[in-house]
Amino acid sequence: QKEVEQNSGPLSVPEGAIASLNCTYSDRGSQSFFWYRQYSGKSPELIMFIYSNGDKEDGRFTAQLNKASQYVSLLIRDSQPSDSATYLCAVDNTNAGKSTFGDGTTLTVKP
Amino acid sequence: KAGVTQTPRYLIKTRGQQVTLSCSPISGHRSVSWYQQTPGQGLQFLFEYFSETQRNKGNFPGRFSGRQFSNSRSEMNVSTLELGDSALYLCASSTGPGNTGELFFGEGSRLTVL
Description:
The complex is a heterodimer of chains A (111) and B (114).
Chain A: E1 4-6, E2 11-14, E3 19-25, E4 32-38, E5 45-50, E6 54-58, E7 61-66, E8 71-76, E9 85-93, E10 98-101, E11 105-110
Parallel strand pairs in A: 2-11
Antiparallel strand pairs in A: 1-3, 3-8, 4-5, 4-9, 6-7, 7-8, 9-10, 9-11
Chain B: E1 5-7, E2 10-13, E3 19-24, E4 31-38, E5 42-50, E6 53-57, E7 64-68, E8 74-78, E9 87-94, E10 104-105, E11 109-113
Parallel strand pairs in B: 2-11
Antiparallel strand pairs in B: 1-3, 3-8, 4-5, 4-9, 5-6, 7-8, 9-10, 9-11
């Protein structure tokens, strides 16, 4: 079992729809959770982070964390073609000084 | 504020050669992590340096090595290149220690091994 698993994708949604990206992790010592966006041919950039159970909203993005279920998700509302990218989930275990990435989910938003 | 700078951006080598990649972190960042990204394996952690010390290492053979200088700049070296080493090598800096927290990535060095 991989330490961080994401929807295999690819995920395709129409413009204006909600895109839902999911991530599960195996290390219960994980403390911080990050979502990075990577456009084709570019490097990853951080778009959201969440530390506590519940929801965290930032514009059209909402990160959701459930530590009991070891599950973190990213919702993108009113999806735009410019949101088409690969989304990487990263999970930190600060005590271990380690950050682990999932393989990513590729999202395509169709006009 | 300048971002993370990686050089060279592109390079082509042949099997058996060696390569050295360079990374200059964001000013004030003392942690530098290196990742290998391939379509089949995703983003794989190579190693992390903080204050010139390697703190963490991923599951890569000893052909992959690195170091960090007193100004926090880092280099990674791959010796005896194999075809499977063809990948995008990404460097990420953070305030550290540990490659945790927000990571700022460079544009990467794309290595092709022929």
